[in-house]
Structures are given as structure tokens and as C-alpha cells.
Amino acid sequence: MKIIDKVEYFGRRAEICFSSSRRGRRNYYLVYTLLYLVFMGIIGAAYVYAGKSFIWGPYGDGMRQHYTSLVYLGEYLRDILYNIFVEHTFEIPMWDLHIGYGSDIVTTLHYYTLGDPLNLLSVLVPQRYTEYLYDFLLMLRIYLSGAAFSIYCRYHGNKPLPTLLGACIYAFSGWNMVAGFKHPFFINPCIYLPLLLLGVDKIYKKEKPYLYMSMVGISCISNFYFFYMLTIFMVLYAAYRYFMLFGKIRVKEWLGWIGRFAGYGAVGLGCACVLFLPVAAAFLETGRADADVYVQSAYSAEHYQMLVGALSGKYLSSYTIIGVSAVCLPALLILFLKRGKNLALKIGFIMCCIFLCVPYIAHVFNGFSYATNRWCWAFVMLLAYIFVKVFPDFFTLSKKQKIALGLCTAAYCLYILADPYARDGWNVLTALLFLGAAGTLLLGYAFWQRHKACWSVFLTLAMSCSILVNISYSYSEKGNDQSSIRWFVPIGEAYSEIYEPIQKTVKSFSDEEDYRFEQESSGVHYNSAMVTELNGGQFFFSLANGNVSRFLSDICLNKPLEQKFQNMDERAYLMKLLSMKYFAGSQRTVPYGYEKAASSGEGLPSVYADEDALPLAYTYDSYIPVEEYEKMDGIERQEAMLQGVVLEDSQLPKCEAEIDAEEADYEITDLKNIELSDKGFQVLADNASLVLRVDGRSDCETNVVFENLEYEGGSSKLSILLNTKADGKKIGKKILFYTEENNFYTGRKDFISNLNYHQEPVTSVKLTFEKKGNYRYDELKVVCQPLDRLASYTEDRKEDLAENLTINGGNVSCRIRLEEAKALVFSLPYGNGWNALVNGEKAEIKKANTAFMALELPPGEYEIELHYTTPFIKSGLLLSLCSVVIFIVIVIMKEKRKRKTK
Question: What is the pTM (predicted TM-score) of this model?
Fold first, then answer.
């Protein structure tokens, strides 16, 4: 009994220490911090023991997008401060040639780092040490999510102990442990949601609206994507609170409340417009905004069977990640056993379960894009809050309720053991914890009623054990293999992963700033060039320039993602058009016209150079109308664009493009698990293959072309492998293809795969289909692209070259002298933010070759300047300044009214 008495004493002292006084609040957050440090210390120890950082990679989004963006942001902010305080010029770069083929900085980085207040710390950390800042910010976000939840619960009068336990459940949920560690900013809505809902409550209680306005502004400026979802939940919560407070709709009163929320929300949104307006405009200009999206009518049977397991840790399809502590399960049962109480929580839980069952709702929550449950963080908050609210009811169960709790507990455990989808070691362990918690409650109910402090201690231990199980599951290969620790970047190696030897070699060339470089597909570190300040061309961010995406579609590149591209498939004509002088790769994949220029080190790819490459600005004396260009196929387009510039209209003479590419005859042989059909193949097994016996041509690029490729079968992501051998070299390429059912489907059905240049004719191509099913197409062609006239066309484009071409962020300048009227084309992506000055006067910039920029110039000498400003950023800034003024006025008026009342 002495032990029980001591536990009782400890529990009572804890209640006193956690009182609502200022000291009690301080003690609460001190204990929360200690618990957080224990759990986070266990996680950190596991990573340190494995020798890993918190950066998901090296080829995951954590390395390629989040870490790279954070490194870039720190340097970007330091450059701005340098311009202001050293150069004394208020110059903010808004465009960078090193991001893809050249991209808007604001709209590209906003989704990842720009706008998140926490990321401002990057200005203080050198590039080499940003990895440790990345780790710290991830841990800080987890801490803040639990702290925000605590603030919300304490405001609503919940007792300290259940609030503390709920905060830990919330902070260390499966969402934060899996989604948050892969994408750190996915934790941000877990911070913002409790504070936004608290802001709603304050307005209903006619308290100060500052928190509501501030959180609307912060959540919007941080990330427009999650702000959209936060707004949906904020509206649902505001409606729920209205009915809880007023019972029924009184139209005049109801409209008044809508006006308050809309007005204060507009002020907060206005404060964020400096970033929100440009990003919203950029999104609407991308192909993703108007792409056709397939939404299935229902999820798979496996999804529904595993939903129960998802609450305690199982990770399902469509980003259904929840994973709350096992102690939430008895709390859910008690919630529904107690009639007449917590009706809103019951409705909320049922609604969320329905949301998880209907793909169309996931489609709506994802901005009417593909169906994904990236809103699960809101469900996690609801489950954690249910535990907090139900906690006192653990001690008030009737006999019938105890029996019902016992039966439901047994039924749940039997389900986990019986269902093959839900049954795995971790779910069984969670079920046992649930059974242990519920069984302990029921068997010792009389004891717990007499010693409630002991029950509180027991629940704390059970919650801790359950969180440790969730943590272990989250990073195990049986839980979510892609999130297991082995996939994370080793400690201290992130910086060197970006500054790889190949990039250092390219950087050593004196003219690397005047051209681009391309890298072989394998081993590409997307977005690294933006940090190393190279003109790389690799790009992998959510918002891409829509003109570049259309260009990649026009040339039928063998990679279908519009926001992810890495090279031009070694196609010589395209590499000329994009000013690619340097190529890094193996000797067997070297494009036509490239010679070895340097070695990157033993066992590493060499760097090759094309000494006849086009610079970033070149000229044309004739044009191809867009309507004629659109009638061409992908091979014809690449050849035509080097002869005449593609424009909507022009004063230049019309170009009659001469096409040398020709189809080669072929015969289909050596079918393995494939049956031929009219315009298609019936592939009977995975990795089935066939061989095209080709009547090839010497001294040319050989391309395999699919037109209107379609698929029916059991997969939404497909690969067709192509292998050939010529000139003693083996070449392997891949066509990546998505069906309408895939989240990343963009409508692309035409593909060209270049098997590279060979002096000998290509005589056979092996096609391997990784997935079985029915493949259909309008045309399957083998096209030979002679390169005899490539040098001549290149020479024509270099006849009148721009002099002193400099590109400094969004400022481009050059001089040119022309003997005849020509179009000066910059192989920089076209965008609405560009303006041109020719000899000091404004000039029209035309969209050239689908994606790039051109100035039409008559004979003469010209000083040319191009300047870029992010579209709508000035309007957004004006709105933000006005909104900040309105915010200040509201504060002043509220404070004056408060003083008068006193």
C-alpha cells in the first residue's frame, strides 16, 4: 500500500502543480517539454545509432526538394540582406536560371520553404550546416504541434493531465512520424489548426480577433495548399460552434457572424497576399490546374478492411496516415457508450470516417486534384481531443457500459487477429496494448475509482508504451518501408550529396555560365544545380512553368511528369536548342557531337563538351507558324525548330522546314508471353518481351515512337524498357507511362525514346513490358534521325550572335548588330513577368518555340535588356500593406474600446 499511497500523493501534487495559475501553466509546459524530450530523444537516438539524419533521401523528396530548398532559401535571404546593407540597393531577385531551365523563385519555393516563418532561421546558418537546421526545425515543428494542441485544450477548460497526454498523442502521431519526417512542412497544419479553431472560439466569445487574423495570415503565407484544407475545417468548425452556442439559425444573427469571420479572415488573407496572389496565379497557369483527373468511385476492398488498423498505426493507400496511441481506442468506445454527451465529437468522428471511405471527398480536400487523404492531420487532432474530453468518463461507467466496453474490446482484438490485411506484428501489439488498457480498467474498476491518481499514472505509462510502439512501427520496414530509417541520408552527408564531383567538374569550366549542362538519367540529384549555381536543367517541384511543360509534351519526351524533368534524352537537336554544351555521363550514352573534356574522378562519369553548342541567345531569319508546327510529330518538331522559330505571327519570311527523319521498316519477333493484336500487344505476364528486327540506318539517332499509347490492366504506372546494341555499346532506355487512374496522370500518350546516335545501323530493339495487360496504340514506329545537317543549322543560328550576354537573376542584357531583320531567341522560359527594353524603349516579347522568348528586330544595332518581376507580386504587396494597416487600426480601436469599458 505504501507504493499506492506514494502514487496517489504524486498524482494529487501533479494536479496542484498543473493549476490554471501562471505558475501552473509554466509547470504544465515544463512537464510537456520533458515528455517531448524523452520521446524525441528516443527517436533521435535511433537515427544517430543508424548514422542517419532526418532528411529523407538521397533520392526522396526530403533531399531533392525540402533540404535543397532550405539551403537555397538561406543563401537567397543573405543575398537580399547583402544588397540592402552593403550594396545599398533594395533588390530582391525573383527569377533564377539555375532552377530548372530558369524559374520564378517565389512561386517555385513557396510550397516548400518560402513563407514559413520558421524557415527564416536559415539566414543564420551557412549552407554546409543547413542539414542540422533542417533536423532542428523538424523537431521544433513536432514540439509546437503539441504545444498548440495544449493551448486549445486549456482554453476550453480541460484538465491538465488528459491535455498533457492528448498533446503527446497528437505530437507523436503516425502523421507526424511518417508524413512529417518525409515532408517537414506537412507538420505545419498540425500547428495551425488548433490555433485557428481557438481564434474562431475567441470571436464567438467576442474576445480579441487578433489570433484568428494572425493565424489566417500565417497559415496562408506559409503554404497555400494546406491553407485550403485548413479553411474547410475552419468553416466546418465555425458552423458546429454556432449550433452549439445558439441552437438554431437566426438569419440576421447568422449573417452577422458570417460577416465578422469573413471580414477578419479577409484582413488575415490580405496580409498574406504578397505571396498568395503570385502563387495562386502561377498555379492557374500550370497544366495541373486544368488537367483531367480520374477519381475512382470507391477504394479497394483492402483499404476498407484496414481502416480500423489505420487508427492505431496501419498506413493505407491514398496517404491515409493516422496512427494515434492505443489508449484512444477505449476512449472512442466510451465516447459512444455515453449517451447524450459529446454529440459534436461523435458527429465529427463519423464524418471523418465517411471522408476516409469516399475518394471524391479526398479529391475535394486535395483541391479537386487526385484523390489523397492529406487532411488526416485534422482527424488526428479530433481523436486526440476525444481522448481528452472522454478521460473523466473512465471513472463513471455503468455495469452495462463496462460489459459493452469489454465486448467491443474483445471484438476489436479478434478482428485484428482474424483479418489477414489488418493482422501484422505491430497491429497485434497495438491490440494487446488496447486489450491491456481496457482489461486493466474493467478488472480493477473499483480500485481505480478509489485511486484515480493511480489510474492517471497507469494511463500515462500505457500512452507512453503505445507511442513507442507507433514510433517503432513508423520507422520499421514492416510499417512503411519508404519511411524506414534506412532510406534517410547519412549524418553529415547531405551537403556533399549536392556538391557532387560532377558538378564541381562542370563548375571548373570558364564558360559554364554561358551554357547549360545535361546529366545522364541515372544518379541525377534533382534541383542540386540551384544550390551549386549551375545551369543544370533538372527540375522537381510542384509548380512548373506551364510553357516548359507544354514544350516537353510537344517533343514527346519519354518522361510524362510535367513538374519533374531531368534531361533531353540525349536528343542532339534538342540539346542544341537548349544551349547544352556539357554532358555528364558514361561513354556509351554520349550524345552526338560531344567529346570528352574532363574526368570527375575514378569510377565517376566523365564530362563531355560540344564545342559547337548554341549560346543562351541566338537568331533566326524565318519563322514557322504555330498551326503548321502543331501538325508535326515530335521528331519533326525538333528538327524544324532549329531551322525556323515557331511564332504565333511574325514579319519574318515563312520557313519551309526540311525534314530528314525517316521511318525504318521493322518486323516483330521473339515474342515471350506476348500475343499480337491489331495495333497492340496482349502482354500475358510481367516482364514479357519482344524484339523489333529493324532495317536501320547508319550515322543517325534511332528513336522508338509510340503514338496514343493506352493500357488496360491492373496497374496505373507502367514502364517499357528498350535495349539495343550498336557500335559495340549496349544502350538501355525506359518509357515511363501513367494511366488515367494514376495520381500523376497528365494526359500524355505520345512518347519518343532515343536509343542514341550510332555509326552502325541499329538492327534490333528489345522491348520489355514490366506489367502484364493490354497495350494499344495508333502507331509504333522506329524513326531514324540523320544528323548530317545539324552543324549547318547550328551555324545559321550563330550567324548573328548577341555580345556581352549577361544573366544576373531576373536581369538579362546584351548587344547585337543585325544586317537584316531577325528574331533574337533567348532559350529562357517565357513568362508573363518578363519585360523588354530595346535601346531604352519597351518592346514586345513573343513566345518562341512553345516555351522560350523572342524579340523581333529590324536591321540595326541594339542594346537589349530583359527584366523579370513575379506576376502579381506588386499587387499582392499593396494588398498586404493595406491589410497590415487595417489590422493595426483594428487593434487600436479594440484597445481604445477596452480602456473606455474599464
Answer: 0.92
CA atoms in the 13 A half-sphere facing the CB of 8? 11
CA distance linking residue 665 with residue 798, whole number of Å? 36
Residues with Cβ within 8 Å of 251's Cβ and at least 6 positions away in sequence, in order, are: none
Nearest to 618 by CA among 467, 447, 826, 887: 826
Residue 240: φ, ψ to 5°:
-60, -45
- Cβ neighbours of residue 150 closer than 8 Å, sequence gap 6 or more: 28, 29, 32, 163, 164, 167
Residues 6 or more apart whose Cβ sits within 8 Å of residue 196? 212, 215, 216, 219, 230, 234
Per-residue model confidence as pLDDT tens digits over 481-496: 555 788 899 999 999 8
> How far is Cα 36 from Cα 354, in angstroms, rounded to an integer?
32
Query: What is the identity of the amino acid at 702?
Result: T
How distant is the alpha carbon of residue 875 from its chain centre? 27
Domain 619-653+793-868, CATH class in plain words: mainly beta
Taken as a whole, the chain contains a residue count of: 902
Mention every residue, 6+ apart, whose C-beta is less than 8 A from residue 490.
Answer: 51, 52, 53
Q: Measure Cα distances from 131 to 488, 493, 551, 697, 815 in Å.
A: 12, 9, 35, 51, 43
Tell me the one-letter amino acid at 853: M
Please state, rounded to an integer, the average pLDDT across all residues of the chain.
88
CA distance 656 to 644: 8
**CA–CA gap between residue 626 and residue 554 (Å, rounded):** 12
Q: Where are the alpha helices (DSSP H) in 272-398?
A: 273-285, 301-305, 307-312, 328-337, 343-357, 359-365, 376-390
Residue of 789, 796, 848 lying closest to 645 (CA atoms): 848
Task: Give the pLDDT band of residue 13 (cuts 50, 70, 90).
Answer: low
Q: Show me where the domains of the chain are located.
A: 297-482, 499-613, 619-653+793-868, 662-787
Q: Which CATH architecture has domain 662-787?
A: Sandwich (2.60)
Q: Tell me which residue has cell 510524362.
A: 560
* Closest to 529 measured CA to CA, from 537, 521, 540: 537
Q: In this structure, what are the phi and psi dihedrals at residue 624, rounded to the nearest 5 degrees?
A: -115, 120
Is the Cβ–Cβ distance between 659 and 636 less than 8 Å? yes
Rounded-to-integer distance, Cα 756 and Cα 726, Å: 10
Which amino acid, one-letter code, is at 259?
G
Starting at the edge strand found earlier in the chain, the sheet holding 751-758 runs 662-664, 779-786, 700-707, 751-758
